[in-house]
Write a structure and sequence with these properties.
The chain has 152 residues and is α+β, with helices and mostly antiparallel strands. Helix 2 packs antiparallel against helix 3. The chain has three helices and five strands; from the N terminus they run αβββαββα.
């Protein structure tokens, strides 16, 4: 469990402050960061569960229903035993029809070092899934019935 003040402290100690040098969390427990790749990472603090989660969009689903179904089926298959997600979960954001990668920060009140590693790892995974999403969406557009992406 991670109480809200501990979560705010992690962000402050990690040097993730906004321009006014105040903690980045809004009153609702949400904030966003831009990683070194220019990708947006949303951080959500759930006070009732005392957890912090990172979420990042990996791509917009194709408008064609068959293509969207193929991509969604592929992404869902990757959630089984967290294949290629290293414990993160792939999800769909209905508003805007985006696919997203999400992961909970399980570090509790651990060190800032652990938190920075969590964010760095999530950033790397997000970049990998953005690349994968682009390739599987292109395969779906080509009409391939079996989508694949080789994770290294």
């Amino acid at each position: 469990m991670l109480d809200f003040e501990a979560a705010r402290h992690l962000l402050e100690e990690a040097g993730l402050n906004n321009e006014e040098n105040a903690p980045v969390f809004a009153e609702d427990g949400c904030t966003e960061l831009i990683d070194e790749n220019g990708n947006v990472i949303h951080l959500f603090y759930d006070q009732s569960a005392e957890t912090l989660a990172a979420v990042g969009a990996i791509g917009k689903l194709p408008e064609d229903k068959d293509e969207a179904l193929a991509v969604t089926t592929y992404l869902l298959s990757q959630n089984l035993l967290w294949v290629n997600t290293h414990g993160a979960t792939l999800a769909l954001v209905r508003e805007g029809s985006y696919a997203a990668l999400q992961r909970r920060y399980e570090g509790g009140e651990e060190s800032v070092y652990d938190f920075k590693n969590f964010l760095g790892s999530f950033s790397d995974e997000l970049a990998q899934w953005i690349e994968a999403f682009g390739k599987i969406a292109a395969q779906a557009e080509e009409g391939r019935s079996s989508l694949e992406f080789d994770f290294v």
